[in-house]
Fold this sequence. Notes:
Elements: H1 3-21, E1 28-32, E2 35-39, H2 41-47, H3 49-56, E3 84-87, H4 92-104, H5 131-146, H6 150-163, H7 169-182, H8 185-197, H9 202-205, H10 211-256, H11 260-270, H12 279-286, H13 289-297, H14 314-321, H15 324-332, H16 347-360, H17 372-392, H18 410-414, H19 422-430, H20 433-436, H21 443-456
Parallel strand pairs: 1-3
Antiparallel strand pairs: 1-2
Helix pairs in contact: 1-4, 2-3, 4-5, 5-6, 5-7, 7-8, 8-10, 10-11, 10-12, 12-13, 12-14, 13-15, 14-15, 14-16, 15-17, 15-19, 16-17, 17-19
Amino acid sequence: MSSFEESSRSLSLDYLNLLINGQAFSDVTFSVEGRLVHAHRCILAARSVFFRKFFCEPDSPSGLDPVGSRMSSGGAPAGSRPGVIPVNSVGYEVFLLLLQFLYTGQVSIVPQKHESRPDCSERACWHTHCTSAVDLALDTLAAARYFGVEQLALLTQKQLGSIVEKASIEDVMKVLIASRKQEVHQLWTTCSHLVAKSGLPPDVLAKHLPIDVVAKIEELRLKSSIARRSLIHHHHHHLAADLEDQKIRRMRRALDSSDVELVKLMVMGEGLNLDEALALHYAVENCSREVVKALLELGAADVNYPAGPAGKTPLHIAAEMVSPDMVAVLLDHHADPNVRTVDGVTPLDILRTLTSDFLFKGAVPGLTHIEPNKLRLCLELVQSAAMVISREEGCVNPPTWTAIYTPISDEVHNSGGGSVNLDSRMVYLNLGATDSTRMEGDDDSSSHHNSQREAMN
């Protein structure tokens, strides 16, 4: 604390002691609620225009009344002491607070903690936002306004603004009416918004507030409702997008580490939508066959979910990757080989195009290296699946697929096909691939398929 601040504090305490113990030096006495208050004219006149005029006017009235019913100069009221100025409409506590501020420039407009007060039924109340605190602040504001102590009025307004944030709605409405009467616009705005947020219907508000105030509250509710809906929608949109992005990042990290169990917990506990998060598409493109299989077995992802503007399914991606393992596991979990993208392209179309490019151009666009055996197996798996679906649907004239490659031979198994997973071949056989890859009129090829099935079984 600086020396100036210390000197100011010491001066304030000196004046406060003068107010408390200054009967011997006082030159004016007030009577408030039957109790005498001794004060000093010079201090009151110096600090308040009201008191300056009151003491200096030749026709000064004999009483003080903040509500305007000042007594005439015809003498003191009956029963009052000579030379004592009666204060008729300000409470003793409020008048002392007013004088304390005039003497020291500071005051606490809060009842004493744990003090028993008639308008507060709560025991051991701290009186920070109860009805007693509200009433004391309102009375102080009215007195400060009447006596022209504007600094005290501003201090009280600030105190009320803090009180109403935690006060009961009944007390808030009380402050609302007082702020309108006192023309305290900032306090009016704060209280009107609090009443509007309370949710009390107009008929209940009408029991406590004037009709025109109720109308303004309803108008405020309408405006704030429109603004709130717009703000909430905008805020929730961005908030939801951020939360979803965080979920998707966590999901991908879990898939990268093969932690499908964590993904399951996210689905069950956090409401993660695997389709909207494109979990299966991501796993097919970046993870192992085991991860994709475990993800499918959760039963929470649509194996035929179209992604992006093109509308590609996981099977489209697996076909583009030329991955027999992924194609097989997707078909084994009912991926539709006939599903089309927005442009009408099926997984089979993709594989046919890749095969054509490889056979006739010697290269596949976008793929630096391609294994012929994997491309052949992918093509046969998808063709076989389509044939099975055609039979199950009872097509009269099922489509006939023309095999571009000759069927897989033993040489393939022994050379380049060793990297093809055995489960993929089993899926290929279970889907009835032998019928789909039979060449027209080629009996030798048919007998070769039969011998191949027996060898793999």
